[in-house]
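ok so for the tutorial part 2 we go from a plain amino acid sequence to predicted structure tokens. step 1 is just haveing the sequence, like this:
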Amino acid sequence: MSSETFSIAITGDLHAGATPPGALRAEFASVDDEAELLLIAGDLTDHGSLEEAELLGAELANLRLPKVAVLGNHDHEHGEAEELMRALTRMGIRVLDGDLALFGERVAIAGAKGFCGGFGRAALQPWGEEVIKSFVLEAVNEALKLEAALARAQAYPVRVALTHYAPIKSTVEGENPEVLPFLGSSRLADAIEQFGATLAVHGHAHNGHLEGTTAGGIPVYNAAATLLRSRFGRAYRVVRVGR
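step 2 — the prediction. this is what the tokens look like for a chain of 243 residues:
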């Protein structure tokens, strides 16, 4: 591997607590030999409990490479998101929420959970009932978190936007059409394009497409483990960035 490239293993939607004991440990047994960094695009747990976080930490405990994640909607189910983040961090999985993980002078990971609301002209707008305005505000705030993190990453040659929700429609197509607006938001793509990320990684769309691009041509990877297993026979894939 060239010293100018960086190998990143990507995964998501591991849903610890819903997988047999030892299954994830076996799936990730070779990742240290293939990548320099592991990104987890949300839904680390199945119901957001601290017990499930402990299970995931045990499954990935033997990995030497750095592990960076964002939370997903399942990780919020138990109402303990902040405690979950702290627990995962203690177990060696750094969880981002509008901040950066930096690796030398080469790579910056900007992470936020993101939110839903739809894509392009079909994106929900803040008009009408207060509950709709609050829903859209959540999407706006999550996009602003990602934007702020990417703005701080401009000096790094490789800038990765890590979210749970999708920034583009093309990587969630394949899911039930009725749920597409709930799988992501193009407001995330606006942030990614404004600050020129090298690539974006998301999860959440278990039956979507592996890859797409933003309108400006930035690569977007769907890292949902179910999708990766169906195509690669394991819960992660490796992407190489740089020259």
